[in-house]
# Entry
Amino acid sequence: MTSIYPVSKAPVSAPALVLEMPVMETAVTALIDRAFGPGRFAKVSERLREGNRLLADCSFVAMRGGEPVGCVRLWPVTIGGEPAAFLGPLAVDSEERSAGLGQTLVEAACEAARAAGWKAVLLVGDAPYFTRAGFSADHTWGVVMPGPVDQRRVLLKALVEGGDQGLSGLVAVA
# Structure
């Protein structure tokens, strides 16, 4: 028998965003490994995470059913001696993509960084994706990553007026 009422899928609720805690490390690392594979360890960005400390008040995990389905991490770095937050990795499970979760995670991390007093967030990533969150290559010409990188992928977002201007020099672990 066919129903005369239209069948609709109930909207899937958004995952809960929580600050990353040390107890989540294994599950979050597994999520990042699924998203990026072993090649992530060869990237220049990884050099800025090795031996660094996670900015726990600015790093978020999206939870669904008690499991992480997305994450974004921020790290303290300097650009020519000036402090900045470094974003990455941003990882979202394949089943959760295309629903805006990555954008939501980036915006939450940037807002938390602003509240924590950071002036700018730096990342290496896809410009068309990250410009939607306010990142730009406009002020990155003098930003030097600690290894080879496509300079067009080096992006900054000001968290305060002018926070992305005048940053120049080597990016290093703070």
User: Anything to note?
Assistant: The radius of gyration is 18 Å. The chain has a mean pLDDT of 91. The first helix runs from residue 25 to 36.
